[in-house]
Amino acid sequence: MKTKYPNIVEFQVTGEYALFSDPIMRLGGEKCSYQIPTYEALKGILSSVYWKPTLIWRILDVRIMNPIQTEVKGIRPIKYGGGNDLAYYTYLKNCRYQVRACFDWNDNRPELAQDRNENKHHQIALRMIEKGGRRDVFLGTRECQGYVEPCVFGSGKGAYDDLPELSFGLMYHGITYPDEAYSEQTKGRMTARFWYPVMKNGIIHFLPPEQCPGQKPLRAMEMKSFSTDLGNFSGLREFGEVE
């Protein structure tokens, strides 16, 4: 359910390297980044800045600020059976993105309805963006450290401001988990989403998860329940997620 007045947050995320890819490419071997950030990666960045089970972050737009460049690195990943392997990973380099997002209340969490204070969450999120986030920020993978700071979306000169339109074909959008289900088909299971992003004058407008044309159920999954029991919330209290 959307809040009455969607609270917009705007921030810039930068990093020397990034690796945005379909999770199926994370199983081993060669890895190659998409040319642009995925919805799920940007949502993960914002969740590292400020996360609450009461709300769901919605990524609205991303603006590509720097030219899209790649760099190939020789990597020695750990093999599942032990030891090391040899592989080439293709990273994006010199990354800088402006992001605009808002939040909705999570209707799958009626037990947290008393925490639906829109102004409180919005102000905390803005403060966390100013401080660079509560947790470490990564651009797709753990080895790609990112840095968050406030910005005005649309400010400054972007590398693709004068490019009318650029399509990227079929891309992974994100994963819908049971606690963020939006239909009977997504309840009680993990669902992968796919879409066809188009960049116009450097800006990509993301479709909401429920509007993605590709929906692929992956497996059954139960939703974690939260209660007011201290033991259930002890881990969240440690990180200040519960007042």
3D architecture notes:
The protein has 243 residues and is mainly beta. 14% of the residues lie in helices and 34% in strands. It has three helices and 13 strands. The protein has helices at 39-49, 118-130, 230-238; strands at residues 9-18, 31-32, 55-64, 70-75, 87-105, 137-138, 145-150, 166-167, 171-176, 189-195, 198-200, 203-205, 214-220. Strands 1, 2, 3, 4, 5, 6, 7, 8, 11 and 12 form a ten-stranded mixed beta sheet that branches. Strands 9-10-13 form a three-stranded antiparallel beta sheet. The longest helix is centred in the middle third of the chain and has 13 residues, at 118-130. The radius of gyration is 19 Å and the shape is globular. The two termini are 23 Å apart. Mean pLDDT is 87; it is low at 230-243.
